[in-house]
Each structure stands twice: as C-alpha cells, then as structure tokens.
Amino acid sequence: MNMKRVTRSRPGRLIAAVVLAVAVGIPLGVTGAASAATPLTVAQALAAQDGRTATVTGYVIGQPTATTTVLTSGFTADTAIALADQAGETGTSRMLYVQVTAAWRSTFGLLTNPSLRGRQVTATGALTAYFSHGGLKNPTAMSLGGGATPSPTPTPSPTPTPSPTGTAVPDAYYAAAAGRTGPALRTALHGIIKVQTKLSYDQVWDALKDTDQDPANPANVILLYSGRSQSKTSNGGGTNDWNREHVWAKSHGDFGTATGPGTDVHHLRPEDVSVNSLRGNKDFDAGGGAVAEAPGCYTDADSFEPRDAVKGDVARMILYMAIRYEGGDGWPDLEPNDSVSNGSAPRLGRLSKLLAWNDQDPPDAFEKRRNQRIYERWQGNRNPFVDHPEWARSIWG
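Above: the chain sequence. Below: its structure as tokens.
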C-alpha cells in the first residue's frame, strides 16, 4: 500500500503565525500566498517587518534618503518611495520605505514621475527594513490605486495626457480636517496642502496647457478673464498671445516667479497678454468700466471684477493661496483682507466680495477637473475650497 507522508507544522510556529496575523489585522485562515494579495495598510506593514511577502497600499509622500529623511521635492533618484496611510503625513515613523527596483523605476520613481506624490500606490514585496527603517523590498508588483498588477508595467508617462479624468476627492486626503472648523480647520488644511511638488516657471507653460484645456477642443486652452478658447501654441508675449496670469498678484508679497507661490499652478491661469496687463496687480472688487477684450469684466483704478462664470474660481484661488502660504516655509504669509489698497503688502482684497463670489459661483466641471489634474499630474496637492466651498465661510466667517 502506498502511503502519503503528511508533514505537520510545529505547534510553536503555528502559534507565532496566528499571533502575527492577529497583530497586523489579517483574517485567520488566510494563507501566506493569499495574504500577499490582500492589501495591508502602512501601519500593518510597519508592524510586520519579518521578511514575509505582503501587498501594501498607501499614499506616496516622497523619496526616502535616510532613516528619518524623506524628500518631498527636488528628487534625486528613482530608487525609493515612502508610503503612508494619510496623503498629508509628515512623520517618517508612520511611513513605509519602498524599494523601487529597475523594473519599476520608469513608472514609479519620483525623479522621473514627480507628480506621483500624493497618489495612492500598491506594492507587493518583502516586508523588511530599508534605510534602517520599516520597509518593503524587492517588489514583485506595483500599481497605481488600491489593486496590484501581476507584472511590471515599465512604460513611462512623463508628459501630461490630454484626456479628462475623474474629479472625485481621494479617500483620506482630508482626513486630518474631518470635523474641524475655524482656526483648527485652517491649521489642518495648511498641513495637508503644503505637501506638494514645486514646479519651475518654465514648467508652468506645460501645466497650464493641460489644466486649462478647452473641453470642446483639446488643442486649445480657455483664457480666465476673456473666456476665449485659444490655441495652446499661441503662448508668449505678442499681441493676442496668452501668458501666465498670477491671480494672487506676485507683487502682493514680492514673491516674483521664483519656485514657490510664484509657480503654484493653483493660482496661475492662461490669459490674453493685454488683459493680463490691464488687470496688473489690482485687488478684486465689483464695478468700474467694461474691459473690451474680456466681456463681463470691469475695472477701475484700484480693482478688477472678473466675469460671472469665474468669480468663484478667482475667490477660491485666492483663499487657497492664503491657506497654503502661511509664512512658515520661507515665503510671505499671504492673507486676504477687505482692502483694495494693499500695495506690495502680502494682502489681497476684497475679502467680503471674494466670499460672496465663492457662494454665488460654485465649482463647475471645468474647475473640478482642473483641481484633479493639478493633484494627479503636477503638484500632488489640491485646492480644498474647490472640493469643499463651504469651508471658506467656516474659516473667514
């Protein structure tokens, strides 16, 4: 009679496996192979640094370079990414350092793909220390979003795609702001949106051709104040060209066009050269004479009124800048006020009018798509007032 030999696990090993499974939240009865297909949170992965193979999902925070150092801009290599359970995480102890091997660098390396910051990534590999820090090494699968793919997808996508994308607010992005109001909400939002990729002023040209694309004509952009659809290639300084309008005028705080607020695409928009010049550094308010090249816009000696269709857009861009730039990162503390005589002070008005415009003109599909594209492809952060216009009144009354 042929007898099949049955190999039994040692009781001690079985008990240890059960304890580990309970500790990291893996359902009992799931095999090692199955556990690799069931995504863990970053917190669970950090608690299970035993060399086992697992699949982990988290948000890309930056490039780890040392045990307690993660670059969030100025990336130097494609060899590693740091993941966290919250997109706005700042504590390295709550990040998982993921090794990015050669097969995945063209798609998941941050030097090549800086716009990955803030996006959700799923990786499968060995849970073991990396940079003397909780990590995942030798990935066998990596993918965007919450599900892993079985094989490398090394085709790079270094330039923006022109097709529209979804506009749903990503899960957990605003988790730190949940239930907060007033100053506490403001503080939480600043902590979330300050995590971003910073662009050069030259990169802004390409970004605007993507973010402000005409939905009816992918070869064109929509000009902010004029409302005109114009060829993407007609950017420059000539008559009827379009250039880069700083909605928060760069002289209000003297930040110029240096990388930072001067290149933040959340407040930069395409506009006709002469209309841009006419607006200049004026504050925003109602009234004045009609602007010939921008129907529905009005201006006087000290203020500019945008057309009705973008009044809310303008307001939300100004409010974003006030929350993003609080003076703690080497840039001026920008703040809206109720004046139209701010000169070079880091102030811009008129706040009461901006709040009214935010109520009057809620975010439309164009503005929501724009916010999503900046988040997905360019800066990795969002304008919270596009996602939650009601937060403006909660903060400023």
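The mean pLDDT is 86.
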